[in-house]
């Protein structure tokens, strides 16, 4: 036979008649008169007390305890005058809560030697009170424990400035004002100040001596505190461990005087034995393909000293494959082995290998777009990626099939083969093309990547309007061979805010089946990004595209270089800076130079207003070097909006044609995705 005990708790708050019910350990508790926000925390407290009491039935002691803890709860939540009355009738405990007026923090008066600005000290004092969701930032709820915690933060802030004996005394006014505000007086007693004197260092590895001494060279004269000493020790140990001294440890000796002044510090390091990587050990739960990619990608670390920077490059290569949502690489020392060795234990989480996606969009050049793509990042459980795409726009369909091996021959190199078919029918001509491309690439360091590539393409161009000189060869098969490199110091490749990059691409193209087309093409690009304030930034970019060995008329129209568009001179539509036929077909050229500068300001989270200036030119002659270009420069100025998304910003730009010529429009509106340069 079971016994059901009912406990009814009535909370008479000033402005709420809502009813709440809880059941705990066979006891039903009904609570009325408290709002939902207060009930969330009160509910948890009552459940805890009923569980801890161990009571199987209501009683006067249980009712008295519930009343006591409920009152304490309300006092902690800013009702210092709260009263709780209880009554026991049969199986029901009734609690009546008279909360009174909620007290809030009023005026804060600071006294003493304020070595830190008053406004900063106020933020530390009120931090525990105002960090809660929905808190009043000016007059937060008076919670004694939170104010005491804030007082401790103020004291720690003073000690961070070297005032190790600093004391802060919080004195609240005896009474609360009629407006519910209770004022505070904060007395600051900083005491003497301590600063770093000489800092001596010994015992570090000879290979790292210069780097470690450089770290502590700026320390003398800084405010002294124990936390700063521990921070220096941690930084020295990090330098050692990142270079293979995984057992590094430091101790510091110093003596504090009573009157402040300089403190001399001696730091001694015991680095231990430098550790080499023994073997790569992926977690057994990884798939066979993932294990292959990880083992191959990290293999070059085996037998070498553990160096965190080198491992970071291998780590990024693994993430570049798209196979992993998360990776963790930890060295595990092998006990009792000399010379010291460690296994690299790799754990993490794989991404879902097979994905099917659909795309809809609009671009001011290609118009409406739609596409479907399939991707398998672990094809046949070999660690290879198979990607298939089919896209449609007003220019026509484009389909491709690409197979990528991220660890070819079980090495740190990646290879890919891609077959693509395209029908381009946008202007006064139509081109059908089929291409096969091979690429071998490698991330050589954290910032440097390079690749070599080869390919062949067969193309047919048809037109009823354009002349032979305008269209160039109409049937041609080309073979190409080349390489590329990129040095990238941006903080993000898709949403850069600071840093820079430079890239270069060289391609030699030759005739394969008698179409008499051969040339050399070079693409040089670079950009620099600089934040000015938290919301204000500056960016600049430039590019020079050049074809050597042929004039424009000797090249197929889609093999030429173009200028104008959302990523070059934005006063022109895509490709339309330069000669255009009467029907609107851009004829392109053999050199394109453009440069841009842009200021942007964040007017709302993730939304920026930008102002930019562009300049560029298009040449059509036969160039003798990669640095030949036309001096007929065309300027543009404009403004736009950027909304940041994880894959890059959505951009709306309008570029004004400053030097408008006959037949040209006064400007151009661009809608696209991605950074301009």
Overall shape: it is globular
Helical fraction equals 10-25%
Overall mean pLDDT = 91
**Biggest β-sheet: strands ordered side by side in the sheet:** 15-16-17-18-19-20-21-22-23-24-25-26-27-28-29-30
Structural class: alpha+beta
Main sheet summary: 16 strands, antiparallel
According to DSSP, the number of beta strands is 30
Explain this structure to me?
This protein is an alpha+beta fold and 677 residues long. The protein contains nine helices and 30 strands. The chain has helices at 36-53, 60-76, 118-130, 144-160, 209-216, 226-242, 288-298, 308-320, 468-471; strands at residues 5-10, 19-24, 27-32, 83-89, 92-98, 104-112, 167-172, 181-189, 194-202, 249-254, 261-270, 276-282, 324-333, 341-350, 354-363, 367-379, 384-393, 396-405, 414-424, 430-443, 448-462, 475-488, 499-511, 519-531, 536-548, 591-604, 607-619, 634-645, 648-657, 667-673. It has a 16-stranded antiparallel sheet. Strands 1-3-2 form a three-stranded mixed sheet, with helices on one face. Strands 6-8-7 form a three-stranded mixed sheet, with helices on one face. Strand 23 (499-511) and strand 24 form a beta hairpin. The longest helix has 18 residues, at 36-53.
Short account of what is shown:
This protein has helices at 36-53, 60-76, 118-130, 144-160, 209-216, 226-242, 288-298, 308-320, 468-471; strands at 5-10, 19-24, 27-32, 83-89, 92-98, 104-112, 167-172, 181-189, 194-202, 249-254, 261-270, 276-282, 324-333, 341-350, 354-363, 367-379, 384-393, 396-405, 414-424, 430-443, 448-462, 475-488, 499-511, 519-531, 536-548, 591-604, 607-619, 634-645, 648-657, 667-673. It is an alpha+beta fold and 677 residues long. The protein has a 16-stranded antiparallel β-sheet. Strands 1-3-2 form a three-stranded mixed β-sheet, with helices on one face. The protein has a three-stranded mixed β-sheet with strand order 6-8-7, covered by helices on one side.
